Every structure is written in C-alpha cells, then in structure tokens.
C-alpha cells in the first residue's frame, strides 16, 4: 500500500503510454526507491522514468510490440479488422504479409534490440549452449524479451518453457506463441530484483540481464544464482553497447563475473559469440 504522495508518483507513471504495461510491483519498487532521493515530485517522476528507460525502454523500438502482435495474430487467425485506421499503413502491410507466409520467428526477434543483435549468430549461439548442457526438457528464461521466439533454434523436446519479463504484453504475446507450438502457456511477469522464480528447470537463461540487475541492486544477480532451481545456468553479457561501440565491455564483464560467482559455482564453458560473452555454469 502506497501513501498518498508516493501513490501520486506511481499513478503518474502508469498513466504514461510508454510504461503503462509494465509489471506493477516493479514500478512500485522503483517509485519508492526514487521518492526518497528527491524533494520535488517533478524530479521524482523524471528519475523513475529514467530508470525505467534504462532497464526497459532502451531495448524496444517504436511500434515493436504492435508489429510482433500483428505477426502472431496473423498466425493464430485473428481477423484484420483488429487493425483499424488507428494503425499506420506500415502496420497494416505487416499484417497482410504475415497472412501470406508462415510465422517467421526471426521477424519478431528483429524487433527487439537484444535479440536482433543475436540474429546473425543464432545457430552458433545455441549450438554452443546445448553442446554443453544437452537437451533440456524444461527451460527458465529470466528477462526473456523476445528470446522465446528462438525455440526453433533450440533442441526438440523442450516441454516446459518458463519465461519472465516485466512487460505484461510481452508475456501475453509469448503465451500465444507457446499455444501455437502446443506448449504450456508459462510466460509471466516478475521483478527479479525483489522476486526469484521458483520453477524447477533443467537450464536457466539470463541473457544480457546481469548489468541491468547489478545497476539496480549490486550483488543481487550473483545471489540469484543460488536461489534458482536449475541444473545449469547460462549467462550472457553484451560486449558492445546498443550503439555498437566496443568499450572494453567484454574484459570488464568477464572480470566482474568470474570474481563474483564465488566458490559455489564452477564455469563449464565460456565463449564470445557475436556481440555476446556467454558463460555456462553449474553448482560446484
């Protein structure tokens, strides 16, 4: 329960078009954290939006959700009338194209900055991972974004895919996709800073999320490892910025990761693939 002043900040955020679909507990947490740092509501609201942009907004391009929804909607036979004059002609053309071809998951992955960077190396990326961990029947994907759409590049036999994001719309979209694949609809939302998924999985994916977690709560990402019910944990870091700049990120992240995991986990493999530094770890 938020007090009146803090509640006003929260309401201002959820009424904004950009952040209205984000997981409510996450917004409440960030509002509470930023509230105490500033005296004026104007500055508090700006600080909350800046943090939300850092952890969410920077990775999404314009109408990316609408475009992805159109592609999945066409695959499940949703009528075009859902996309009326309010939509731009480009969105309507995406729907028309999607009606004429099978669902192409890479089209959707291209709409999200994190998965778009991986497209040129998808086969190598997943071959590296699954050569080490084998063929899991269950996967836990934390901060999933559009990554579950890469299921076609993963081994057959995955029966449960637990996917967590902070956007309600993305969770809903992924569940529609899972339905197309006759998989259980196990996508949902979570604030990983304050919550740990309790699902039991053969492997957990934490792709390019570590810097985002550590920027909010130093040490939380490494604590998360020991709280997960997963046989293997696959972690990746970006080695270039969203602008494509190499700032020595790979070296710095490698140093931070290898010193941060402690003695409770052992590194099974490490590889730089495309724009990602990938670690596979297991309990020691």
Overview of this protein structure:
- It contains twelve helices and seven strands.
- The protein is α/β, with parallel strands linked by helices.
- It has two domains: 4-55, Helicase, Ruva Protein, domain 3 (Orthogonal Bundle); 113-283, Vaccinia Virus protein VP39 (Rossmann fold, 3-Layer(aba) Sandwich).
- The chain has a seven-stranded mixed beta sheet with strand order 3-2-1-4-5-7-6, with helices on both faces.
Question: Could you give a short account of the major beta sheet?
Answer: 7 strands, mixed
Q: What distance separates the N and C termini?
A: 41 Å
* Tally of strands: 7
- Low-confidence segments, given as residue ranges, are 98-102
CATH superfamily of the largest domain: Vaccinia Virus protein VP39
Query: What is the CATH domain class of the largest domain?
Result: Alpha Beta
Q: In CATH terms, what is the architecture of the largest domain? A: 3-Layer(aba) Sandwich
Structural class: alpha/beta
How many H/I helices? Answer: 12
Residue-averaged pLDDT = 86
Oligomeric composition of the shown chains:
single chain
